[in-house]
């Protein structure tokens, strides 16, 4: 029998542990997807920026698809598609792949915007000082453009974090899925949802405020 | 695929619920923005809480809240109402922030000029300020409309038969999950492109200045 | 007639108007000059209650502007105002800019409002710009549009708040000409201005503001020809 230290009917200490583990999985899958998505997205953004029409005809529309189809559909499709081509992926891995690509499709636009925010004369000035193309990118475009779009990137990252809840449809037990399971067992939906909501809020709110304050500081 | 008409019809349901939640979201979002800018005390607290909750928790969480959460206190909504309420709640929160930015971009002197002509506060807002705000937030508004369509797919998790819900129902009956969801993906893509195209055409007609 | 008695205005703890007494009879053109920040513009805003006041009173044709029961929207129709930043409504054509308030404030029909607007735009020399959006007009044209917009309410008084200060130098003339035209037609005008030539040639009286008080008020000849106050002498010598 379970220990009876319950402070609310049905909900036990072990259940809180269960929620915390699930919350950790939410953080894990989000962090991994955002990291992969950001690296890929910056590369895509650079291709879109430099690649002219070739990229505009291929990569652009492809990324556009990921922004125009609901994430949940993408997840279900990929999860059912992978075995067809012989990949046997668990829900976590499928989630990382799709969330990562989805994140990359959003970051690509942000990154391109950042590169466009750096004016041509400024870059010409950098090149005139003898900087190579890559030096210009590293020391001029990255700091200036990165600054301009940092708040947007934070918005995308937080969006992906919140959207990670959808990986639950594949059976991955992240925070929201764990809440759902507990709700079915304990019949305490309000309490459990409040805990889950508070966790997301506690993660997202301070970061979004921080990004907003940085945006204010940098634009003024 | 003989179920295509069913899917297309469900696509219309998706579009319909997205449009409806946008309309509700715009009205409430405008009110929330104005309350946050001009009022103090409990009203401001309420509006700020709404906006921050909508923006800082997953849409799926909001959907569950309107589903199981309200169910726990005896408010049982139909799947349709749950999705509509959650989407409207979410849209209102995001749009409120867009509107706030829009209002801040209009110089105070516009209001002064309007009032100096004898317009009431309401006339000045409805005829002078808000039309200009709408132009500023038009692009974010279009994006939010697209989000509303994409978000409505969560309806399938609470048993609502919009496009995704219908797809899931058909797919589980036939076990041809991949095919059904692939077709649905195409339909979503088409809906989104349609919205973006329509928005561009409408903008050309609306904003001549 | 506009009667101002003992008017005091604070922004927070800063007192910008320190007891203004001023009477402007019908038909007069009064120019207000003085350094920036001396409270000239604030006085205009207090006359049509775009700013609240802390002491004293403003009466327009006997009606107390700041009294609680006053229908301020009705009163503002008597008081046309032109701003430094012309404040055209960017989402409306020139004609709509002018026609809007006659229609929604005065309840004119669409056709009537259109006629009024067309007439006033012609009045200020914009007859060929009826269907143009403000973004396609020069600053001077937008300022004349603003004058037409105010005139369309058939005001009895016109308040000009540095109407030419934000204009490029070559566009100042056309706006001053329009103001001159109004003065000749007998409009009662209070003009806060930095254009000394306009103040001298067009005004019946000129008031000199210094740090929230009217330090000197007299005919243009006296103000510009024989200034009494030391501050005014200094002000005039600085701008010449």
From TrEMBL, chain A:
<keyword id="KW-0813">Transport</keyword>
<dbReference type="InterPro" id="IPR010065">
    <property type="entry name" value="AA_ABC_transptr_permease_3TM"/>
</dbReference>
<dbReference type="InterPro" id="IPR043429">
    <property type="entry name" value="ArtM/GltK/GlnP/TcyL/YhdX-like"/>
</dbReference>
<keyword id="KW-0472">Membrane</keyword>
<keyword id="KW-0029">Amino-acid transport</keyword>
<comment type="similarity">
    <text>Belongs to the binding-protein-dependent transport system permease family. HisMQ subfamily.</text>
</comment>
<dbReference type="InterPro" id="IPR035906">
    <property type="entry name" value="MetI-like_sf"/>
</dbReference>
<keyword id="KW-0812">Transmembrane</keyword>
<keyword id="KW-1003">Cell membrane</keyword>
<feature type="transmembrane region" description="Helical">
    <location>
        <begin position="136"/>
        <end position="158"/>
    </location>
</feature>
<protein>
    <submittedName>
        <fullName>Glutamine transport system permease protein GlnP</fullName>
    </submittedName>
</protein>
<dbReference type="InterPro" id="IPR000515">
    <property type="entry name" value="MetI-like"/>
</dbReference>
<dbReference type="Pfam" id="PF00528">
    <property type="entry name" value="BPD_transp_1"/>
</dbReference>
<feature type="domain" description="ABC transmembrane type-1">
    <location>
        <begin position="23"/>
        <end position="211"/>
    </location>
</feature>
<feature type="transmembrane region" description="Helical">
    <location>
        <begin position="190"/>
        <end position="208"/>
    </location>
</feature>
TrEMBL record, chain B:
<comment type="similarity">
    <text>Belongs to the binding-protein-dependent transport system permease family. HisMQ subfamily.</text>
</comment>
<keyword id="KW-1133">Transmembrane helix</keyword>
<dbReference type="InterPro" id="IPR010065">
    <property type="entry name" value="AA_ABC_transptr_permease_3TM"/>
</dbReference>
<dbReference type="InterPro" id="IPR000515">
    <property type="entry name" value="MetI-like"/>
</dbReference>
<dbReference type="InterPro" id="IPR035906">
    <property type="entry name" value="MetI-like_sf"/>
</dbReference>
<feature type="transmembrane region" description="Helical">
    <location>
        <begin position="12"/>
        <end position="35"/>
    </location>
</feature>
<keyword id="KW-1003">Cell membrane</keyword>
<feature type="domain" description="ABC transmembrane type-1">
    <location>
        <begin position="11"/>
        <end position="196"/>
    </location>
</feature>
<dbReference type="GO" id="GO:0015184">
    <property type="term" value="F:L-cystine transmembrane transporter activity"/>
</dbReference>
<keyword id="KW-0812">Transmembrane</keyword>
<feature type="transmembrane region" description="Helical">
    <location>
        <begin position="180"/>
        <end position="203"/>
    </location>
</feature>
<feature type="transmembrane region" description="Helical">
    <location>
        <begin position="136"/>
        <end position="160"/>
    </location>
</feature>
<dbReference type="GO" id="GO:0043190">
    <property type="term" value="C:ATP-binding cassette (ABC) transporter complex"/>
</dbReference>
<keyword id="KW-0029">Amino-acid transport</keyword>
<dbReference type="Pfam" id="PF00528">
    <property type="entry name" value="BPD_transp_1"/>
</dbReference>
TrEMBL record, chain C:
<keyword id="KW-0029">Amino-acid transport</keyword>
<protein>
    <submittedName>
        <fullName>Glutamine transport ATP-binding protein GlnQ</fullName>
    </submittedName>
</protein>
<dbReference type="InterPro" id="IPR017871">
    <property type="entry name" value="ABC_transporter-like_CS"/>
</dbReference>
<dbReference type="GO" id="GO:0005524">
    <property type="term" value="F:ATP binding"/>
</dbReference>
<comment type="similarity">
    <text>Belongs to the ABC transporter superfamily.</text>
</comment>
<dbReference type="Pfam" id="PF00005">
    <property type="entry name" value="ABC_tran"/>
</dbReference>
<dbReference type="GO" id="GO:0005886">
    <property type="term" value="C:plasma membrane"/>
</dbReference>
<keyword id="KW-0067">ATP-binding</keyword>
<dbReference type="InterPro" id="IPR003439">
    <property type="entry name" value="ABC_transporter-like_ATP-bd"/>
</dbReference>
<keyword id="KW-0547">Nucleotide-binding</keyword>
<keyword id="KW-0813">Transport</keyword>
<dbReference type="InterPro" id="IPR050086">
    <property type="entry name" value="MetN_ABC_transporter-like"/>
</dbReference>
<feature type="domain" description="ABC transporter">
    <location>
        <begin position="2"/>
        <end position="236"/>
    </location>
</feature>
<dbReference type="GO" id="GO:0016887">
    <property type="term" value="F:ATP hydrolysis activity"/>
</dbReference>
<dbReference type="InterPro" id="IPR030679">
    <property type="entry name" value="ABC_ATPase_HisP-typ"/>
</dbReference>
